[in-house]
Amino acid sequence: MSKPVIVALDFADDFECIEFLSQFPKDTDLFVKIGLEMFCQFGYPFVRSLRNRGYKIFLDLKLHDIPNTVRRTCEMIAKWDVQMLTVHGSGGSEMIAAAKKGLEGSNTNLLAVTQLTSLGQSELSEELMIPQKSQDYVTHLAKLAFDNGADGVISSALEVPMIKEVTDESFLCVTPGIRPKTAQVGDQKCVATPKEARELGSDAIVVGRPITQSEDGFSAYKNICQEWNK
């Protein structure tokens, strides 16, 4: 797998999204993320329309349900020709294995979400009552995902070296919360620059607002790609 910059398409409507994408030349090898909000609004037809444009798709649905339901859902998604799909690692070993089973025969990489980047140590211990340190919890879920057939995880760049250590170098680490030095952190608590993520071993980065809210989205994308690929 190449090391892509994945653009998070967090738009209020599909027209605004298509208008944004029109900035990109047709030959751009673009990898885009469709999250829960846009998917709930526009569904599979929107996914299909972007695939028909030649874009690679990261479908970030963070599935979390009983194993049988997740397996059957993944069996449907396996027909959609998307490149990445997420489940919650906290759904457990049986659910992760069921998701991978549902994707059999497709080229979709299964990624487990370890800890949401909006959650810090205080939320983990005080709200969720998880006694482990954040990094220990993340590496535990990454190892659980690895042992049950997942192709990778979503994690902070800071945790990538530890995840690679308990899994394998080929185990994908896809990193959200990426902000260039000049960008605001926003609601993300675990952030890194593209350069930092690359140095820490991330296999792909996900970037939203620094690109999608830029006056020139394509130039912002190119600048981040340049920093990421140095």
TrEMBL record:
Catalyzed reaction equations: orotidine 5'-phosphate + H(+) = UMP + CO2
Enzyme Commission no: 4.1.1.23
Record-annotated membrane-spanning stretches: none
UniProt KW Iron keyword: no
Domain Orotidine 5'-phosphate decarboxylase: 4-224
One biological process term in Gene Ontology: 'de novo' UMP biosynthetic process
PROSITE patterns noted in UniProt: OMPDECASE
Active site: D60 (for ompdecase activity), K62 (for ompdecase activity), K62 (proton donor), D65 (for ompdecase activity)
Keyword Lyase: yes
Residues binding substrate: 10, 33, 60-69, 117, 179, 188, 208-209
GO cellular component, one term: cytosol
Keywords on record: Decarboxylase, Lyase, Pyrimidine biosynthesis
A Pfam family per the record: OMPdecase
Function recorded in the entry: Catalyzes the decarboxylation of orotidine 5'-monophosphate (OMP) to uridine 5'-monophosphate (UMP).
Subunit structure: Homodimer.
Family assignment from sequence similarity: Belongs to the OMP decarboxylase family. Type 1 subfamily.
Full protein name: Orotidine 5'-phosphate decarboxylase
Species per Swiss-Prot/TrEMBL record: Companilactobacillus tucceti DSM 20183
Taxonomic lineage of the native organism: Bacteria, Bacillati, Bacillota, Bacilli, Lactobacillales
